[in-house]
Design goal:
It is found in: Membrane. The chain is an all-alpha fold. Helix content is about 65%, strand content about 0%. The radius of gyration is 23 Å and the shape is globular.
Length: about 200
């Protein structure tokens, strides 16, 4: 019987697809595990600096919904940075509630400006929430950029959590010092911005 007749013969250059796909998934998982949190931190810093530039340098005063989005975005810089330094495997548990809540507010704000699908919020003193400072290509404005930032942070933190294999036992409790510190940062920063918004 010739060599070509044996069942174990494999065509030259043929490589099984399984190992290649597994290797690609491993590389992608390793990338998010190593850099996902850092990219999320970079996005939070860019969004924070961008909002401050718009209000302080360009003179675009924020509306009430803008303040709500800032309250949810600004603490992310400190939270993600502390989580990176402490190598906290449960970091996504602190970040995702803020980023997803911010995405919901940004989406509401965007639809409020661009459509008439939603009822406007109650009248308040100051800048109306329907004001549109920026309009690029007919759909890119400040709420759209905020929504994009929140979604990017949410995606990166979710992908990182899956990549590092977050377990249930990594869930923080109120008795955990890291959890207490994270909650304290959220409360203090939120209180500071709410107080600043009331004063201004």
């Amino acid at each position: 019987m010739s060599v070509t007749d044996t069942p174990s013969s494999i065509a030259v250059g043929e490589v099984p697809d399984g190992p290649i796909q597994a290797a690609e998934e491993d590389r992608l998982s390793a990338f998010f595990a190593s850099y996902g949190r850092h990219l999320a931190l970079l996005q939070a810093i860019v969004a924070t600096c961008g909002s401050l530039f718009m209000s302080e340098a360009l003179g675009w005063p924020p509306c009430v919904l803008c303040w709500y989005q800032r309250i949810l975005m600004y603490p992310l810089v400190a939270l993600i940075l502390i989580g990176i330094l402490r190598r906290d495997r449960g970091l996504h548990l602190y970040v995702l509630p803020l980023s997803l809540s911010g995405a919901c507010i940004s989406l509401y704000h965007y639809l409020l400006v661009k459509t008439d699908w939603l009822p406007p919020p109650p009248c308040v003193d100051g800048i109306p929430c329907t004001v549109d400072y920026l309009d690029i290509l007919g759909f890119i404005n400040v709420p759209f950029m905020a929504l994009t930032a929140f979604l990017i942070i949410s995606f990166l933190m979710g992908a990182t959590a899956v990549s590092i294999g977050a377990r249930t036992e990594a869930t923080p409790s109120l008795r955990d010092r890291q959890a207490i510190a994270a909650y304290a940062i959220i409360v203090l920063v939120a209180a500071a911005f709410i107080g600043w918004g009331i004063i201004v």
